[in-house]
Amino acid sequence: MSTIDEIKSKIDIVDLVSEAGVKLRHAGKNYTGFCPFHDNKHSPAFVVWPETGTWRCFGQCNEGGDIFKFVMKREGLDFKEALQKLAARAGVELKEYQRETPQQKEAYENLRKLLEDAIIYYRSHLFANKNILDYLHEKRGLNDSTIETFGLGYAPAGYDNLLNHFTQRGYSEQDLIDSGLLSVRESESQISSLQSRSFDRFRNRIMIPIRDEQGRMAGFGARIVDPNDIPKFLNSPETPIFSKGRLLYGLDRARKPIRTADQAVIVEGYLDVIALHQAGYENVVSPMGTALTEDQMRLLKKFTRRIVLALDPDTAGQKAVLRGLDAARSAMDKEGELGFDARGLLRNESRLQADLRVATMPDDLDPDEIVARDKDEWKKLIEDAKPIVTHVMETLAAGQNINDPKVKNRIAAQVLPLIEDLPNALERDTYRQALARMLRVDERSLLATQAQGGVLSGSKYPRVRRPRQVEKTEVRESTSPVTVSVSSSKAVEEYVIGVLFRKPELLYRLDRSLQEFGLIALTAKDFDYTDNQMLFRLIRESVEQDKTEHHDFVVDSLPETLQARSQELVKEAEKLDRVEEKLLEELLRGVIKLRRVAAGENINQLRFLQEEAHESGDARASSYQDLVLQHTRLLRDLDQAHRKMAVKRLE
Question: Is residue 227 reached through a cis peptide bond, with omega within 30 degrees of 0 on the bond before it?
Fold first, then answer.
């Protein structure tokens, strides 16, 4: 039994929820009460399943999970903190997982010292190069004090300048490779014809030191000098101390200003950050030229929950928050482009209880150009930042013929799923009304379209956070009466995670197969266990960020408390069938089973809530009926997908 399972076995979820002030009463084998996470004292839509140790709200917040998720949401804790709290309650000893040995710690400190020395090296070359200094002064508007404060430098052209400099001073070639300052030649033929197996990674570039939030050196960002060079920006490679998805440039200097302003502003360029800090706007940070990750959001969450995305004025930048929406993918899937997934950001907004807004730059100007033109203009732009959904609506409608019914349908199909991701019912109603006004349609037609599932792209069914199943679920609203055995739901869930953990390259194929059967792609909400949700999010992130070593990325990103869990997955995954087509088919079966079990249990519970609402005259009875119908349609589609799989296998 794992530590997590041991804690669950020793804590009664009914007692845990009751002690939090929720008055529960028996409802068959389950318990119902009023949800503690939103104000609603008219309908007891909060359900606890004692046999599975899970809970769910069928009302406004539409969330659920296990005991860890309950404590995380109730007390604003992360998983590690919730685990420690519940372990203490259960009397379970948490064994510390030693992620960084003393030898590793010393090695990492040596890497940081080498990077600090590299700052001095690059800086000396900058002040010896008048052309580069003039560029920073005149084109970028940076003064000497700012250049010194941010440690800017210049990497000279040539393949062995840094290599020769540091090896002559006692550093080994391997030290330079480990720090990310050198790149290794790919072929033996290259090595045999040259003196060294490695070469300077950064050449003829402006060098920008990147530190972690504690101010420790982690790596470098490098901008081209010659406009013909590619890529425009080049970062250090992934090293033990540099991980793009877990760092935010400028956060070491922005921490205090962010707290003071109670707001963080995210821009796309390192030099934009520097220019804005110089102008007095010090609450500004930047990602590493990749999609904004949940780890980066959690970093900011420590200092503020008010976050503004200040996007560049080009087409890709203006539409960046649309990334992940089908209609915008083709326009924005360019290498090296910053990606903000509107759906992912909204999920983060809900999960982290953040306020995320978007500010767009006028007149085709970048942030540094705006503060150079008028410092006060930047302040006004940030103050006028719009909520993400508003930005998406306006961006999609720009230049379109709103009178065209097909245009209305296309915009509604992309915006409605975003609105449904919002955790607050009042916000959802407000945005639906705004969308109806913009499209010049009756709001009731939007609601009808949404309920029918006819136009929604990628969100055909409501995202219902589900409990794991008990022994058996009777479902009699699908095409035929079906009895689903669900005793192995936990095993299925862990099998899916185990396969993807070992073979993450199957994830895209799995998503495509699901979509071919008319089903949405796999999400973290398909899993009940909090630890499995975390593992899946990391697997998804490793694939989307095109990590070369998926397994290492996931393991290194896990909280210490889940390291043992990852080791168990590695051992289990070694037993997997090596035939990928068979694995893919089993994954499909597993996902369909998990969703079918969830839909069946939700229907049963919704019927119970519907009957109670009818008896008490609660107006929510009709909304429960709508949810029953939507889950019924989902069951029908899952059954059809299962039959199609069977036919395909026989062909």
Answer: no
Residues 6 or more apart from 507 whose CB is under 8 A from it? 500, 522, 539, 540, 543
The pLDDT mean for the chain works out to: 79
pLDDT, average across residues 582-602: 86
The CATH class that applies to domain 399-452 reads mainly alpha
Question: For the chain, what percentages of helix, strand and coil (3-state, to nearest 5) are there?
Answer: 55, 10, 35
Give the position of tokens 């767009």: 360
Q: Give the C-alpha separation, 246 to 252, whole Å.
A: 13
pLDDT of 336 over the 60 cut: no
Q: For the chain, give the number of residues.
A: 651
Find where tokens 């006819």 sit: 454
CA distance 97 to 563: 7
- Pairwise CA distance, residues 353 & 197, whole Å: 49
Cα distance between residue 76 and residue 467, in whole Å: 21
Residue 317: other Cβ atoms inside 10 A? 21
Cα-based angle 598, 510, 582 (whole degrees, multiple of 5): 100
Q: In whole angstroms, how far apart are CA 218 and each of 125, 207, 243, 288, 299?
A: 21, 13, 8, 12, 16
List, as one string, the DSSP characters of 110-143: HHHHHHHHHHHHHHHHHHT-HHHHHIIIIIS---
- CB hemisphere CA count around 80 (13 angstroms): 10
In the block, tokens 């029918």 appear at 452
CA distances to 443, 499, 571, 572, 585 from 575, in Å: 53, 10, 8, 6, 17
- Separation of alpha carbons 125 and 118, rounded Å: 11
Into which CATH architecture does domain 116-183+195-242 fall? Answer: Alpha-Beta Complex (3.90)
Short-list 545, 568, 543, 542, CA closest to 556? 542
Mean pLDDT on 192-203? 76
Which pLDDT tens digit goes with each residue over 235-247?
Answer: 999 998 998 888 9
**Rounded Cα distance, 285 and 270, in Å:** 8
Q: Report pLDDT for 620.
A: 67
Domain ranges of the chain: 12-77, 116-183+195-242, 245-390, 399-452, 472-650
Smallest CA-to-CA distance from 498 within 531, 476, 547 is with 531
Q: Which pLDDT band holds residue 576 (cuts at 50, 70, 90)?
A: low
The neighbouring-strand residues paired with 224 are 205
3-state secondary structure of 227: coil
Give the Cα separation of 238 and 493 in Å (integer).
31
Q: Which amino acid is at 164?
A: N
DSSP per position, 230-249: S-SEEEPPPBTTB-GGG--B
H or E segment to which residue 206 belongs? strand 205-211
Q: Letter for the amino acid at 459?
A: S
Count of alpha carbons within 13 angstroms of residue 521, beta-carbon side? 15
Q: Which fold has domain 472-650?
A: DNAb Helicase; Chain A (1.10.860)
Given the candidates 3.40.50.12780, 3.40.50.2000, 3.40.1360.10, 3.40.30.10, the CATH classification of the domain at 245-390 is 3.40.1360.10
Distance, C-alpha 592 to centroid of its chain: 24
Q: Are 16 and 67 in contact (CB under 8 A)?
A: yes
Residue 64: which H helix or E strand, with range? strand 64-65
CATH of 12-77, one of 3.40.50.970, 3.40.50.880, 3.90.580.10, 3.40.50.620: 3.90.580.10
Q: Which of 150, 370, 369, 176 is nearest to 277 (CA)?
A: 150
